User: Fold this.
Amino acid sequence: MQNCVIWARVSSREQREGYSIDAQLRVTREKANREGWAIAREFVVAESAKRGAERTVFNEMLKWVKANARKLKLNYILAHKLDRTCRNMRDAVRLQELEDTCGIKLSFVENQFGPGAAGALSFNVMAAVAQYYSDNLRTEVLKGIEEKVRQGWAPGSAPYGYLNVSNKEEPIQPHDVNATAVQRIFELYATGTYTFRDIADKMECEGYVYQPSYPRFHRTALSYILNNRFYIGMVTFRGQSYPGKHKPIIDMKTFEECRDLLHGKNRRGGGRNTNHYLAGGMFTCEHCGFGITSERIRRKMKSGKVHEYIYYRCGNLEPTADHPVVRWRQDQLEEAITTELATLRIPDDERRNWLRQSLALACDNNVRLQEEINRTLRKRQTEITQIQQRLLDGYLVGSIDKSTFTAKSTELKLETDQLRDRLAEAAPPSEEFRKRVLETFDFAQNVGARWKVSDTDLRRQILTCILLKRSLSDVSLVTTKRKPFDVFTEGPFLDASRGDRI
Assistant:
């Protein structure tokens, strides 16, 4: 008794056109019965045919067959037609490798391939035709979507706040309730005083629902809504925006204000004030995790002059009883940041220059070492090619039997693939890499001085680049540096020394 595995697949588009998984299973089971094959397992999948879709069930089938081929004595993978299993040449190669390594052959109800070179040629031609069909279908679908976008309509389902209707003149229309919810979200966020959590709480209290299964607006949903240009009348496709024909529900001014806030450009009094540059998501509260917001305080002096101060405080409007007062004056926070950045600099000039030279030398040595490794790998590739040729010559003259030839060929092919992957991954660092390493070192050593003379936008970029975590407690600035800047704070060590820091 021989055993087989049945594979059946239909795409979502084919399902709409009336194709059936049941029909494929029926004809494959009938063929297995006629041939006297026992069905070990059936794999069924209905998936999208778009390029890049994850073929989870197909991969599961290959893994299962490899794991059980010997134990269950599997002989065939049975499908309705070739294009049910092979949508591209990569699939065809993987299935052919399965036959070479496990002895499991492909069988089809409607496609028959003879033995030998002629059968292999027919199989490869049919696989190429299947890939051409898939590629051509994708091209035609994308052309249709792009044309729809250029006409001003969204290519898929309408986003939250709109709904799809059966109206050819206006297929996408604002939703009576959800459109109001979107407007409310933009209204709240544009004030600059609400975090995402605050907005979610507010929307929940006011009775707005995001989805029946998930009524509360979560962070991802709010971010998607606030970044979506569809609400101002634009349709975005493949990175390009086009004027849409649907009705906008958010005005451009409100959208731009919210976008500035999202990108860390803090607004107060209806316009951006660069003096508040350390707010807008730059810091969080160490005690509760809320964002740090800013406020301007005006104090009238005895002389009659008015002095202005900018303070940064925790944005938690309902702190717990044990929450300390987190409130920093801007000059105090700037001084703390300056001190923190100064820890990156190696104070001794001689040791700093030594470390820079050592980094440059290490990059050069790494290049030479990698080049030597690559030469060894390429030499082995040449040796394997020669072995494969001798192996083939021996097989052709009859001194090597087929089973030995197949086993050794598979082994050599596996090693060839491994060598190719190692060569691809082990490209030696270029001069550009060496340059970046030294530039990073120089930047770390001078970032404190650069911070002092930079404008507010550049200061924000420096903080984002250097510091992974940025939070404020009531008494200290708490940070975690990104790699590789965390190394400079610890300070370099001499391996040959007694453990003393350089």
About this structure: Residues 349-397 form the longest helix (49 residues). The chain has 16 helices and 16 strands. Residues 19 and 368 are 59 Å apart (CA to CA).
